[in-house]
Amino acid sequence: SILVFLFACILIVEYFAIWKNQMSVNLEVPSETAIHCHDCWRISKLHFQFCQCCWLGLIVDDPRTLLSYFLVFMFACFKFRADRSSSLSGAFTYYQMISQRKNIFVWKDLSFETKSIWTIFDYLRLYCYCHLLDLVLTLILVTGTLE
């Protein structure tokens, strides 16, 4: 839920930044057409103030950035809803994990039909699979692009 709230806040800030940029006629950066946010990795020493505003999301010169933030927000909402509606309770899963210490073969198939014989490694793999989307969404949020 924290990630969904964070993504929503960033999406609202980006909408506000686009609105502010469209309302202001004069930017502090000369030659606005020659400088883009995606070039900041090269020109940050020359135009640090502009790049700092790009990195903070105060200047949005590429609509794909806003699109990627919106997609991240939607995926986070769907994942949050799926996490809330899942039938795996934490305490039940933990007690089953502790009680099943036999069968240490790590790379067997993960299926819910064989959940009664899962080991700690199987639960660890399930946790990584479930939170891989969180990691990917966070990386998209940090980089600001889907490319």
From TrEMBL:
<keyword id="KW-0812">Transmembrane</keyword>
<feature type="transmembrane region" description="Helical">
    <location>
        <begin position="66"/>
        <end position="82"/>
    </location>
</feature>
<dbReference type="GO" id="GO:0016020">
    <property type="term" value="C:membrane"/>
</dbReference>
<protein>
    <submittedName>
        <fullName>Uncharacterized protein</fullName>
    </submittedName>
</protein>
<keyword id="KW-1133">Transmembrane helix</keyword>
<dbReference type="GO" id="GO:0008381">
    <property type="term" value="F:mechanosensitive monoatomic ion channel activity"/>
</dbReference>
<keyword id="KW-0732">Signal</keyword>
<feature type="signal peptide">
    <location>
        <begin position="1"/>
        <end position="17"/>
    </location>
</feature>
<dbReference type="GO" id="GO:0042391">
    <property type="term" value="P:regulation of membrane potential"/>
</dbReference>
<feature type="transmembrane region" description="Helical">
    <location>
        <begin position="126"/>
        <end position="146"/>
    </location>
</feature>
<dbReference type="GO" id="GO:0005261">
    <property type="term" value="F:monoatomic cation channel activity"/>
</dbReference>
<dbReference type="GO" id="GO:0050982">
    <property type="term" value="P:detection of mechanical stimulus"/>
</dbReference>
<dbReference type="InterPro" id="IPR027272">
    <property type="entry name" value="Piezo"/>
</dbReference>
<keyword id="KW-0472">Membrane</keyword>
<dbReference type="GO" id="GO:0071260">
    <property type="term" value="P:cellular response to mechanical stimulus"/>
</dbReference>
